[in-house]
Amino acid sequence: HNKKGGNFQLRITHGELEHLLCQYSFFCHCSKGIIVNFYEISSYNKETFLMSDGSRVPISRRKAKDVQDAYNKFRFEQLRKEICE
To answer: What is the pLDDT of residues 33-58, one digit of tens each?
Structure first.
């Protein structure tokens, strides 16, 4: 999904896409076949992210701790930037 409501079709594997995107701290592979952009998260709990468009994205139980740590680190960095500006 994207903000304009469309979908992208790519001719690469999900693993290759994950490698390209997840090198940036604001992308995270949170569940099988799903990569989220942390900038688009409205709220979260240990099981799901609520996205800015109102959709809910599941968080893998196996990855929950790592995903939560990555999101908390992202939010902390965003707060630091806001304070420094």
So the answer is: 899 999 999 999 989 999 998 999 99
Instruction: Tell me, rounded to whole angstroms, the distance of Cα 53 from its chain centroid.
Output: 14
Entry field: residues in the chain: 85
Decide if 18 contacts 31 (C-beta within 8 A).
no
The terminus-to-terminus CA distance of the chain in angstroms comes to 31
Return the ∠ at Cα 74 (arms to 69 and 77), rounded to 5°: 125
Give Cα separations from 12 to 15, 16, 33 (angstroms): 8, 6, 13
What pLDDT score does 19 carry?
92
